[in-house]
Each structure stands twice: as structure tokens, then as C-alpha cells.
Amino acid sequence: MEVIKTVLELKSWVSEMKSCNKRISCVPTMGYLHEGHLSLIKRAKEIGDVVVTTIFVNPTQFAPTEDLDKYPKNILRDTKLAEESGADVLFLPEAGEMYPDGFSTSIELGGVTKLFEGEIRPTHFSGVATVVAKLLLLTEADSAVFGQKDYQQTLVVKKLVRELNIPCRIVVAPIVREKDGLAMSSRNVYLEKDDRNLALGISKSLFRTKSLVESGEFHAKSIEQYFRTQLLDAGITEIDYATAVDAENLTTPEYFKKGDTVVLLVVARVGGVRLLDNAILDIP
Amino acid sequence: MEVIKTVLELKSWVSEMKSCNKRISCVPTMGYLHEGHLSLIKRAKEIGDVVVTTIFVNPTQFAPTEDLDKYPKNILRDTKLAEESGADVLFLPEAGEMYPDGFSTSIELGGVTKLFEGEIRPTHFSGVATVVAKLLLLTEADSAVFGQKDYQQTLVVKKLVRELNIPCRIVVAPIVREKDGLAMSSRNVYLEKDDRNLALGISKSLFRTKSLVESGEFHAKSIEQYFRTQLLDAGITEIDYATAVDAENLTTPEYFKKGDTVVLLVVARVGGVRLLDNAILDIP
Lengths: 284, 284
What we know:
The structure is a homodimer. Chain A has about 280 residues and is α/β, with parallel strands linked by helices. Chain A has helices at about 5-20, 35-45, 75-85, 95-100, 115-120, 125-140, 150-165, 195-215, 220-235, and strands spanning about 1-5, 25-30, 50-55, 90, 105-110, 145, 170-175, 240-245, 260-270, 275-280. Chain A contains nine helices and ten strands.
């Protein structure tokens, strides 16, 4: 595996690959890799001939009050794990490579970016869209793999690629969980032992709510009430949202109906750590 | 030459070209082609193996008060001219192909987009940047050719491509002029006979101001004063701007100095028609 730190070197590697008609698959990450990320790299390797994993903790998707500076980091370990998972290139740019002096471009997507995470973090998705566009275009990726754990982000990336006509196929890979059910996240490392046990209430409440819908409850408000009750019963009190919405546009009908695809979204804070989880299901 | 009206057909043609390693060159236009456009198509044909000319009067770069609806049109003539100039494909999308239902993406570039045209037409360059990004990505163009006549637009497109890492080389081709010096423009057709004579004052003032700088006047204010006086003397009174600025960032120093590249920019209205012209020169 080649470790590349500059745009110039990356572009030269990309042209070499393109000249031998290799299909490039890209896995953009913020590093501190866990099994979830590694599953994306493995999936990318199935789709593409060569895989570029990128690690870039993108400052423009963090608000000044957020955890940019304390985002966890372990480049040596990441390098080893990326290589073992089949990455051909690890792209590790400094901020100045991505945003040189005078840089002032941003992509505003509207629509689905205004809801949920977009309401709580108003500049977040513009930062995500801009850096993802740059990474897909820099790597000239034929495909890119994103994790379902950041569900709304996968919708944003699909909208970005569709509306700007970026010639890249977006693949979403399923959530990878710890044995007990907690969705894997780089931020899990910040959970103290007691909070780690408490956090388990998130996935448990999610699975129970999923079962509720599967057993025939299609009234959106009732689903949401049940979801919140489950969380509160499990001791999860700082709930940013816990909801059942249309999987495509994140809006809530009064009742879901046959043929709908629903996503259950939850974001809650446990011991100061903001945790995301979700589950997709089809109304049978 | 193939005439293509849908994104789907265009993408299929593009993959065919890519699969035989053809270098694609793109010439985005708003139609009503004149010798200026044709020179861009010819230049594109020198750089690329195949040329896509696009004709799309992009609604998002016009403000509600502007001349979108009366923008001149002659598709039959354009088709003939594009073919004669060497285009391999003419892409003629309807607005719904470029902006399907639910479309809400825009690219904001900041910087140079805030000056001159960006001050007078605040939403213009966001519309330009978004549609140009879409056209370059749809055509997967290795290169694209733009006319120097819209000088600020060439800076905007270069910034767009550089900052989003769009893998496309931007080539700027010189202004093509009528025999008497008037810069060619699709909007010239709206000039009544007397105004057509009056309009000539724009290029004449531009050339005289260029000579002034070449003869050693480097004081920006004096150059601008001379430029405006020339225009007023020629009967051009509705001047949006007439100025001498740094060719890269469009700012004005007190004095230009050896090694600077200067652009003289002028926009004026003659008989209600907004006309643009410019000239680039190096300080020797």
C-alpha cells in the first residue's frame, strides 16, 4: 500500500491507474479506523480494481464549538489496518493540500441537508458535500463506499453526485456493530465504562422499535413515542432525535403504507458523547 | 455530428468515447453561435479527439429582471455551424434534464465572484459555476474551451475547477472581433444601426487605453480616468465599469509594476444592450 500526502502525487497515481483502465474505488474516512471502516474498504475492493482510502478530519464540517481538535487519531494503526483490508493507496492530506490559500468554494445542497443533522449542525453538510466532491474528483473514483451509520450523510452524498453529475457510483454498506449491538464509531473510545453500558440502550431501543413496526404499527407518531419511551426507560435522556421517517426524503407521513421504505433515526448523547444509529426497513 | 438532448444518451456516448480512450473536449455555450463560438470549437478540436458543444440558456445565471426569455435563438443555424466547425456532438438539453424536480444544489465560489459582474448580478456566478460543473462532469471532459470575452467568467471557471479538483484543463481562447473591432456577442443582434456605430466606441476606447498603458502609464487611477474619458467622448454614457485591474484577482494597486499582468475591463450599455469587452496586457 502506498501512502500519499499530496494532491500532486495522488493525481499522478490516478493518471497511471486510468491509463491502464483500472476502476478506482474510494473510501473517504476521518480515520481512527474500526471494523465499520474496514468493511467499507473490503466492499470497495470487491467493486473496484484499486482502492484509495482517504483519511482527512475535514475542518469545514465541524462548527467552532465541536470536537474537531479532539477527534481521535492513530495514523500508524490506521495505516496497518487499511493495508490489511486491501487498500492500495492511503491518501493523508494536510488541510493546506485540500484548502490552499484563497480557497473559498462551498457546495450548498438544500433539500435533505436542512433536516435533522442539518438543523442541529447548520454548516455541517455543506462542509461534507464540498470535501466529498473534492475527494471523488481528485481520485476520479468510479465508485465510492460510505457507511449506513451516517444515514443522512449517505442521502446527501447521493444527492451531491446526482445533482452535480459526478461520474461516480455511490455504494452504501451496512452498519457494523459490536457483539452486544452498539454501532461502531470512532467516538465510542470516549465512552467511560458506565456510559458504555448505558449507550447499549440506543441500539436496543432501535431494534425494539424496528420490531414494533414489523409487527404492524405504521402510525408515525406512535412509533416515535414508543422509540422515545424505550430510550428513556434505558436511561438515555439527552435525545437529539429519535424518529421514523421516509428513507428517501426524511419526511414523516401520518401513517406509513405498504411499499414505503422507512428509516428509524436516533441521535443521543451519553456521557457527553454524541452517538448515531439507524435501521432501515420496508413496510411489507 | 450527433445531436443529443438527454443526459442518459450523453452519458452513453461519453462511456463509449472513454472506453476507446478518446480525449473529450467541451465547449459550453448559450447558443446563437457566432465566429467567437466557432473559434472555441475549432480550438477544442485541436486539443481533444472529440468535441462536445453544449447549447443551454441556463436560467439560474439570469436574475428575474434579466433577458433570459428574449435571449436570441436559432437552433437550426447553430446545428449547421457547430457541425461545420468540427463538433462531434451537440448537446441540447431542456431545463428539466439539467435541473430535474427537487434539484437544489448550488456552488458558491466567493473570492473573485464577488467583484464587478458579481456585484451587479449577485446570483450570476453561482448559476454559472453550478452549470459549468455539471456540464464538465456530464461530458467527463479532459479539456474545455471558454472565450476571453467573458473575462471574469474565465477566472471563475478556473477557480471552480481548481478548488473542486475537477479533472479538466481549462483553455481560454482570444476574443474574436468584427472587422471594425466590435467584440462578437450574441447580443450584438439587438443593436439598432445607430447604436451599432456607437458601440464601436467601446473597443476603440479599449485599444486606446491599452496603448496608453503600453506607452508607460502605470498609475491605475489615471488609466481608468483616461478610459472613461475615451468612452464618454465616443458617446458611451451608460458605463457599468471601465477599469484596469490585476488579471488574476481583479484588484487595483495604486501603480502597476514590471511583471504584472493587467486586464482592462469594460461593460457599457448601448441602446439598452449590455456589452462586454476587455484586453489583457503584460507590463513590460
